[in-house]
Amino acid sequence: MNAEILPTDTRELFEKAVKRAAQLLRDGQLVALPTETVYGLAANAWDAVAVRRIFEVKDRPPANPIIVHVASLDMAQRCVAKWPPLAGKLAAAFWPGPLTLVLPRAQEIPSVVTAGGATVGVRWPSHPFMQAVIRACGFPLAAPSANPANELSPTNAQHVRKTLGQRIPLIIDGGQAQVGIESSVLDLVSSPPRILRPGMIHPASLLAVIGRAGLAVPDTKAGTASILMSPGLLPKHYAPRAKLVLWNWGDEAELERLVLASGIPPLKVHVVAHSHVPSGEIFGRVSVIPHDAVAYARAIYAELHECDELNPELIVVESLPSGEEWQAVADRLTRAAYPIAPK
Ligand code: TXA
Ligand code: MG
Q1: Ligand 1 contacts CB of residue 184 (under 6 A)
Q2: What is the pTM of this model?
Q3: Ligand 1: does its nearest atom lie under 6 Å from the Cβ of 148?
Q4: pLDDT, tens digit, 9 for 90 and up, residues 54-111
Q5: 37 Cβ inside 6 Å of ligand 1
Q6: Which of 14, 15, 58, 321 has the maximum number of C-beta atoms within 10 A of its C-beta?
């Protein structure tokens, strides 16, 4: 199989692509679709056979539940057994957008979607194409990120084609993902609500809506793999192929000393910097990534995909500034770096 890639950049192309995607999804097939966070590998959430195929294509561990994507509050409520007032408040504040709410699952959700668990993650994405397909289908879409298990999430159609292009019939090109990292996952079943995966909707924004009930934040080091925790919390995840380290350096000479001490030839080293940008003469490649958390998140996966193509031995990423707005990116990079200790 060689995936067809459909563009969406005019009204006619957009509508044609919606029709084709909806038709395949109705037939129980998988389609890679753009969302504002990362590209998703979608199937009809009511169709257990189609969802099982997602696990096959991604080689996804069966204990990892899949987020269900909706395009209305009605549809969200159909996926869950309980819709507490707090879910309504959070949805009003952040949907459509990069927030997944974990709630008790409805009976009708096939257990393969929830990995046998009693809860389901629900998200109303803001990408116009994703919304249009869900509306055209009339059913919710189960969709994990469209990458083989444990690899980088895709932020454009070419990233999907590279790894899954031979295994699925259709990829929709909806442009570069605007958020760039995966949604914040918030567990509303536990009390107080608990962040299972940090994302670009920050704890302070969530707390402003949650109020006095409070919010539990993850212990990134715990990394247990029970179904009700997010497997996204396993220490290693979202990893590029090369070793990745997070280093701090003052000036270029210091960075050069660190690299030479690693024993890896500098030409096989790629540097990703946001503030202390080396001139790059001795390194294989130097990339500058924006010194702004929102723009950084949008760019980082694409940067790591590019590094992967060039096959370096070491990717040196400049340590991130502190501050809550950097938390989600720091989370992804720390996992990508695990377990290689700096030399
Ligand atoms: O932004 C996103 O969330 C993207 C786009 C496609 O929507 N999707 C995504 O899916 O990142 P995935 O499968 O790659 O990551 C979903 C995360 C996993 O860590 C999974 O364990 C967790 O959400 N999750 C899903 N349902 C859950 C549930 N019922 N309870 C706890 N964690 C859940
Ligand atoms: Mg994923």
Answers
A1: no
A2: 0.89
A3: no
A4: 999 999 999 999 999 999 999 999 999 999 999 999 999 999 999 999 999 999 999 9
A5: yes
A6: 58
